[in-house]
Amino acid sequence: DTQIDFHLCESSGQLARLAAQRILTSARRAITTRGCFRLVLAGGRTPLNAYTLLVDATSDWDRWHIFFGDERCLPPGDPERNSHAADQHFLSRVSIPAANIHPIPAELGAESAAEAYAELIAPQLPLDLVLLGLGEDGHTASLFPGQEIPEGVLAMPVHDAPKPPPDRVSLTPDAIASSHEVLVLVSGAGKREALAQWRSGKDLPISRIKSDGRVEVLMDVAAAGEPQGC
Ligand code: 6PG
């Protein structure tokens, strides 16, 4: 079974700083060992402060290759797209070559985009670092409770997602598992229930997440609940 390390952060600010540090350490290791860094960005709001902290933290951007864990089926440039938030907070402010940034073409519709992205990401495996968030219902990327996850595919279409918009594209646990590291960012009291259920072994989408390497969870005190013991 995948070893999962849970790391308690004093605040959301410290969580963002630690996340940025982990990303940079993973980048240095990947660039040293394989000449490039294959990073999968998480959607949602939690990672955005960490992305911003990366902007002035390094300069080897030409070695970075950016992928996305999931995308919402919205027109390009729609402010609700995960790629839009990543652009605003990070990608538009660093010099990663455009050819190395691989948004999910969700505007093609969930089925076509999933097929295209599965083909795109296959030769990139194993990924160096996959960033993930955690939803209040235990979803991660766009893997939601009760969803059928097809075997042997790397990206899947999602319909009727409980978190709008309903149509999305998501990497599958198989794609995420083909990685050296997974880093899950969990901040805020709203995630307390899902985090506690995950840690107590409940079968949630987040519980399906494995890695060939390690899975680390950065959680702040608000999400982790009252400090245990003391
Ligand atoms: C999305 C994200 C989703 C996100 C969680 C947490 O498209 O919404 O990919 O998986 O990571 O819902 O979202 P927050 O970080 O905004 O709480």
Walk me through the structure.
There is one protein chain. The relative contact order is 0.19. The chain contains seven helices and nine strands. It is globular and about 45 Å long. By secondary structure, it is α/β, with parallel strands linked by helices. Helix 1 crosses helix 2. The structure holds 6-phosphogluconic acid. The site of 6-phosphogluconic acid has 16 residues, from strand 4.
In short:
By secondary structure, this protein is of the alpha/beta class. Helices cover 29% and strands 21% of the residues.
Strands, helices and their partners?
Elements: E1 4-9, H1 12-34, E2 37-41, H2 48-54, E3 64-68, E4 70-72, H3 82-89, H4 110-121, E5 127-132, E6 155-158, E7 168-171, H5 173-177, E8 179-186, H6 192-199, E9 214-220, H7 221-224
Parallel strand pairs: 1-9, 2-3, 2-5, 5-8, 8-9
Antiparallel strand pairs: 4-7, 6-7
Helix pairs in contact: 1-2
The chain binds 6-phosphogluconic acid (6PG).
